[in-house]
Structures are given as structure tokens and as C-alpha cells.
TrEMBL record:
Natural source organism: Hesseltinella vesiculosa
Comp. bias intervals (Low complexity): 1-28
Residue ranges of every copy of the RlpA-like protein double-psi beta-barrel domain listed in the record: 32-122
Protein name in the entry: RlpA-like protein double-psi beta-barrel domain-containing protein
Stretches for region Disordered: 1-33
Alphabetically ordered keywords of this record: Signal
Classification of source organism: Eukaryota, Fungi, Fungi incertae sedis, Mucoromycota, Mucoromycotina
Record-linked Pfam families: DPBB_1
């Protein structure tokens, strides 16, 4: 596992490519990619304090941060994440600058709803906006 610094701290990473079944600028449809987890702290790119709750950092390509990311319409939106018959809903509060398109970086609480933290990376995860 690697560690990088940004508004979030990566505790796991993968170079696996992620794909989307719809356009990256769309907030509808089903997307697929990988999920990693990070230890959230401080202020996320949406301008709110983040902690280990049911939160997600969306990949930078789909987050499409402009000059004022605090006003990003995706901030506060919920996503439903599905992996091997399990499902969890989390709220977008941050951006994952190192995640490929389609990927999510989630809090430990969200990750543990799908698999053990020791797994580190989940491949072929499906997710959609609620």
C-alpha cells in the first residue's frame, strides 16, 4: 500500500483502470471501477469537515472540480455502491485526485460494509448516484 497527501490520505491504491458505462460528466447511470479506502480527516474538497462516517471521495474526472469546488453540485449527493451482492450508500464530500475515472475512495466504515479493510482494493465495483 502507498501513502499520498492531498485533502485526503490514501491508505491503499491501485493502478487498475476503471471504466464507466456512461459519460463522465453525467450524474445518472451506472458506473464501474475500483474502490480504495482512506482515513478521512480535515476538510474535504466540498468544504465540509470529514470524518469516518458514510462518505466517499469521487474521482477527479467525474467530480469535475471548477474554480469553487465548494459549490460543486455533486457535493452532498449520495451514491449507492454494489459489490458481490452487498450494497451501501454514502455521501460525496471529497475528491480523490489519484483515482482513475469510475473509481471511488471511501471511508473505512463504507469499505467495511463491503469487505475487510485488509483487502485494500475492491475491483469491478458498480455504483450509481441515488
Amino acid at each position: 500500500m502507498t501513502t499520498t497527501s492531498s485533502t485526503t490520505t490514501k491508505t491503499s491504491s491501485s493502478s487498475a483502470a476503471a471504466t464507466s458505462t456512461t459519460s463522465s460528466s453525467s450524474s445518472s447511470g451506472t458506473f464501474s471501477g475500483r474502490i480504495t479506502w482512506y482515513q478521512p480527516s480535515g476538510t474535504g474538497s466540498c468544504g465540509t469537515t470529514i470524518s469516518n462516517t458514510m462518505i466517499v471521495a469521487l474521482n477527479q474526472q467525474q467530480m469535475n472540480n471548477g474554480a469553487n469546488s465548494n459549490k460543486n453540485p455533486l457535493c452532498g449527493k449520495q451514491v449507492n455502491i454494489q459489490y458481490k451482492g452487498k450494497s451501501v450508500t454514502a455521501t460525496i464530500v471529497d475528491t480523490c485526485p489519484d483515482c482513475p475515472q469510475g473509481a471511488l475512495d471511501v471511508s473505512p466504515l463504507v469499505f467495511q460494509s463491503l469487505a475487510s479493510l485488509g483487502v485494500g482494493v475492491l475491483q469491478d465495483v458498480s455504483w450509481s448516484f441515488v
